[in-house]
Structure formats: C-alpha cells, structure tokens
Amino acid sequence: MSTLPEHVRIRDVSLRDGLQIEDPIPLSAKLELLAAIAATGVQEMEATAFVSPSKVPALADAPELAAHLQEYRDSHGIEFSALVASPNGAKRAIAAGLSSIEYVVSAADGHSRANVGRTSAEATALIPEIIAIAHDSGATVEVIVATAWDCPFDGPTPHQRVVDVLSTAVQHDVDRLAIADTIGTTTPRRVTETVEAVSPLIGDIPLGAHFHNTRGAGLASAYAAVSAGVTRLDASVGGLGGCPFAPGASGNIATEDLVYLLRDSGIGVDVDLPAAIDAAAVAQRLVGHDLPSSLLRAGDRILG
Amino acid sequence: MSTLPEHVRIRDVSLRDGLQIEDPIPLSAKLELLAAIAATGVQEMEATAFVSPSKVPALADAPELAAHLQEYRDSHGIEFSALVASPNGAKRAIAAGLSSIEYVVSAADGHSRANVGRTSAEATALIPEIIAIAHDSGATVEVIVATAWDCPFDGPTPHQRVVDVLSTAVQHDVDRLAIADTIGTTTPRRVTETVEAVSPLIGDIPLGAHFHNTRGAGLASAYAAVSAGVTRLDASVGGLGGCPFAPGASGNIATEDLVYLLRDSGIGVDVDLPAAIDAAAVAQRLVGHDLPSSLLRAGDRILG
After folding, report:
1. Residue A255 needs a FRET pair 20 to 30 A away by CA distance; which of A241, B56, B141, B181 works?
2. Active-site amino acid positions of B
3. Within the 228-257 window of chain B, which residues sit less than 8 Å (CB to CB) from chain A?
C-alpha cells in the first residue's frame, strides 16, 4: 500500500469551474455561495476567471466579484485565485486585486483551438510572458495542464505534450502546477502512471490535480493521485460544474464527497464535512437544479 | 503501484440487490431485464433471493423467475446464484433449480438482528448446515459478510467479527467468499486494509467484494479491492438498488461505470460496455425513475 499524505489541500472551484457553464446567477447569489463555502474552513478558492465575457457570460462579473474577496482574506485567511487564458487576462486579474493566477494550457491541440483559438504549442509559448506579468506584480502563477489525459476532439493526449507544457512552466519558475482531466474520462491507473511519470520532472514544485466525475471515476482518480503523492485537489460543493461535451453529466468531484473519503482514510483536510454539505445545499438552491453530490443525498456516515 | 489482475469477474446483481427495494415489477419485466443483461456477455448473475416474501415483496416471484434461467445457462453459459438467509431458504433455492447459493451473514449484530432476527454469531452458526444442504445436492455456497465495514445501527464493525464469519465458512469448505459494504460507507483505504488482513485466512478460496456508491466512493473502493487482489466484483446495471438507510441515495456500483474503469485500466472483463449501457437504459425504463449511472448520462469516452 502506498504511503498516504497526512494532509491534502482542497481548493474549492465552485465559483469558477462550478458556475462556468451554468446560466449566469447574480453577483448577490455568488456572494451568498462564497460565504457558505468560506464557512467550511477551506483555505483556497478559485474565485472566477478573467476571460472573454462573451464566451463565458456566467463569469462576466469577475472584477465586481473580485472586489468582495478582501474581507474573506482578512477574516478567514482564504487565498483566492483566478483563471486566465492570455497575458491580457493575467493583467486584468492582477488589476482586479488577484495575487494568484491560474494559466490553463490544453495539452491537446483540438481542445486548445476550440477553447482559446491557439495550438497547444502556441498556448505553451505564452507561459513565460504570463509568469513575468505576474511575478513583476508580486503575484504567483499556477500552470494547469488541461486535457492531460484525453481530448474530446483528438482522443488520448500524447504524454509528451503534457511533459512539454510542464517543462516550459518549470523552466520559467512557475509557482505551482496542476494536471486536469477536463472532460472526466481518466481512471486511477492512468492517473497513477501520469503522476509517477511527471514527478521527477517537477521536483519540489507543488502539483495539484483536477478531476471531473463525468464517468463516475472522479473520486477513484483523486485517491489514486493522492496515493501517488499529490497533495492538492480541486473540488466543488455539490459537484457543481457540468461538462459541455457530456450534457447532463456530473461535474467536478464534490467537495463533501472528497472530504468524506479523505477523512475516512485518515487524511487531514481543511474542510468541515457538515459545513460542506450545507454549502452544497446552498449551491443547489442557487442554481435551481439537482446537483450530483452523493453526500447531499446520503448524509454523513450513520453511527449507532 | 500494485499489480493489477488481468481479468475481473463481474457478477451482475441487478435482479436481486438491484430490484430488492424497488416497488415490485412484473415477472415479464424482470425477464426483459434478464435478457438485456444476458446480452452484455456477463457470466454470473445473482438472479433472486429465497427469503420471506412478506419482507421482500419485490422478490416474491423467486420460484417463477428461477424456472426461466435454464435457457440462459444453455444459450449464454451464465451461472445464476440466489441469496438465502436461512437453511430453509437454501432448500427452497435448490428445489427451484439453483445450483449456486449465497448465504449472507451480517458481521454486525444490529444489522443482523434487523435483517434476520438473529445475532451475528447465531447467523454464523448456521453456516455448516447451509453448506451441508447445498453440498448434499451438488450445489455450491458463497458466504457473504454483510456490514463488513460499518453497521447502520452499531457503527464501525469490529474486524474480528468479519474474521469470525470468514473463518467459520473456511472451516466448513465454503466454495466462495465475499465482503460487502452493505450501506455504502467504506472507502479505499479501509478496503485495502480489510482485503490484506483477510487474504491469508482464506487462502485459495475466491474472494469477491460488493460495494454501494451511496457516498460516492464505490468505484474507488472497487479499484482498491482489485488492486489488493480481489478478482470478483458485484455490480448492477444503471446502479440499480438503493439503500434503505439512505433514501434517495445511489445503489450498487453501476456495471457500466465499473466496466469503463476496469477496461481503461487494461483489465479484462466479460461485459461489453455498449450492451451494459443499453441494459441500464432498459432497467431505468422498467423501474420508472432515473438511475444514478454515470455512463448512462455521459456515454463512453469521446474519441476524435
């Protein structure tokens, strides 16, 4: 049996990845959800994205939302990040007060072109500029490798593409890295193989992983990642966040389901389970449809 | 990384565990579901249970259903089993033509009393008699340890109780064994620990595992079991089969979700994935409500 870490840092991505493909909800509703998630004890949140408002209308209020984050930095110590897809997005995020930038690069050309109109190599070539913009302003950068296992257009992603993106980021002093199963197709064995293969390349740079539960294997993949040494995982309350390539399917792995599994494995987390279930219920009410979370239906373990 | 097996035998339990807490459906509907599941290529099915018709009305037609199994033995080579909870149930199953008996023993007293009106030790004490009944008729017996991790009444199950049930079965020449997460609370680390702990005790006797996805960790637990050497897993098409202690929660792990994960891990299975998704759709139509299967919504992996 692998050695499990003592603690896993969960980053809640409800407000960005979770809401991204939902019909836009008002800023007041986002602030209600933010408050509920902050109450879970989570220490990192992906707050929004600075991308094209016409392409992602649900996150068009990024600057307005960003103006509300300082109170949670002060009161809860939460670190907020925002996703960007270009140098201009990085500048906008920093101007709005974000000090932690996620730059997402699709390892597969098909998804990269559909998402940002660039090949993967072209998107990778922007890494140095984005890191420079952030570091010049005292901000940090996480490079996230999207479609790290499969692309909805190109099929399985060649492993070398993942290595190319990670290597470029490492060479330019990236602060954090992550690998993302953007369309929810990977499974634990492939996760183990990828994490073990890239670990020597990235050295001491923190590596996170991002899974969707689209085909039911999200938690199994998360546990495989943790067993292979990953100590940072993304999740959303309720499992918010669908997949544009699989309408009606599950979204991100649910924060509360992940907390249940990790806690039951003796791994420490920052997130309180009952508070996460409460936040999932808030999310479900605000988006107005059932969310796929298991704990939201089943509740915590029944103990006699 | 653990060594994964080359092949995992999936037993479809849709007709028994899947339908057990559903409103009863007509025999004709069960036969339609049986035909759809047989078309998946699965080689073992839990067909029904010979238990009190008043306690489990959904399976009151066990003898009538059993009369239809021979054609699938002949045409598809499927091995059918039936669950029993007493020596009398074993006799009824054998009289109905079943040659494979599952005797379920709850390792926890609370669940055992609620389920069969006996303590776990009293239920364990019936193992020799049930094995004798079966073997005298040329039938085989699998002893299934229910509530192997947690009981809805007693909390965590003492590991020694699981060992006691397994040991008694081994001493009396049981043919197969299984450990069951009856209420869907276990997680991969505990699964690994239990499988590793009981493996020396059971030697060469085939060991299966049975998981519910009630708290989202069913597939993660199944993968942990397989990684620890288990090569027999129960599943139901669509994830049929709720939990009486968590109304509205998910049921058994879904056959098609399990097949997707195992196939993607390079592990051979008897079950064809598109046929399993078709059978899940049949199950959903017959029970008349949404089933929790992921693949039923997301479909197979999208390959460009």
Report:
1. B181
2. 243
3. 243, 245-246, 248-250, 254, 257
Is pLDDT at A304 greater than 60 in this prediction? no
Residue A302 has pLDDT above 80, yes or no: no
| Spatial separation of the C-alpha atoms in residues A241 and B61, rounded to whole Å | 43
Q: How far apart are CA B51 and CA B93, in angstroms?
A: 9
Residue A261 has, within 13 A of its CA and on its CB side, a CA count of 36
pLDDT at A112 over 90: yes
Per-residue exposure over B50-88, b if at least 16 CB sit within 10 Å of its own CB, e if not? bbeeeebebbbbbeebbeebeebeeebebbbbbbbbbee
The nearest alpha carbon in chain B to A250 belongs to: B294
Residue A108 sits in which domain range? 9-296
For A192, the closest of B1, B189, B295 (CB atoms) is: B1
Greatest mean pLDDT range, A3-7, A250-254, B153-157, B255-259: B255-259
Which spans in chain A are helix H? 27-38, 62-66, 70-76, 87-95, 109-116, 120-125, 127-136, 159-171, 188-202, 218-227, 255-264, 273-287, 295-298
Q: What is the DSSP letter of B215?
A: T
Return the SS3 of A128.
Answer: helix
Decide if B302 is inside a domain: no
Nearest to B214 among A213, A265, A294 (CB): A294
Q: Which residues on chain A are in Cβ contact (under 8 Å) with B281?
A: none
Q: How far, in Å, CA of A250 to CA of B293, rounded?
A: 10
Read off the pLDDT of residues B16-61 as tens digits, 9 standing for 90 and up. 999 998 999 999 999 999 999 999 999 999 999 999 999 999 999 9
Comparing CB atoms, the residue among A223, A293, A297 nearest residue B220 is: A223
In a domain, A140, yes or no: yes
* CB contacts < 8 A (A, B): 162
Is A4 in CB contact (< 8 Å) with chain B?
yes
pLDDT digits (tens, 9 = 90+) for A177-187: 999 999 999 99
Give the total number of structural domains in chain A.
Answer: 1
Distance separating alpha carbons of residues A279 and B81, to the nearest angstrom:
44
Tokens of A17: 């990845």
Q: Among A134, A153, A31, A37, which Cα is nearest to A86's?
A: A134
Instruction: Say how far residue A245 (Cα) sits from the centre of its chain.
Output: 18
State which residue of chain A sits closest to B193, comparing Cα positions: A1
- What pLDDT sits at residue A3? 84
CATH number at residue A244: 3.20.20.70
Q: What is the per-residue pLDDT across A205-249, written as a single tens digit (0 to 9) for each? A: 999 999 999 999 999 999 999 999 999 999 999 999 977 777 777
Q: Does residue B303 lie within any of the structural domains? A: no
The ipTM (two decimal places) reads 0.95
